[in-house]
Amino acid sequence: MNDEAFAARPSWVAARFPTNCRGCGAPIAPGERAVRWARSGALSCAICAPAELYANRPASREPREAA
Ligand SMILES: [Zn+2]
Prior knowledge:
Elements lengths: L2 H5 L3 E4 L4 E2 L6 E2 L4 E4 L6 E3 L2 H8 L12
Antiparallel strand pairs: 1-4, 2-3, 4-5
């Protein structure tokens, strides 16, 4: 993995200051769980983040339904 890809990896954090979700614009309070996008520094709320994380992992598919 190259440095750029590593740096772009989002990570779950507790917000350190009041901000707004980059996806839906909802306020994120300090201490609230959110995903931080390393490249932009933007946060995504716990509602938007899973969808965004999923969208950024095209190789990762949902497990197949058990037969
Ligand atoms: Zn959101």
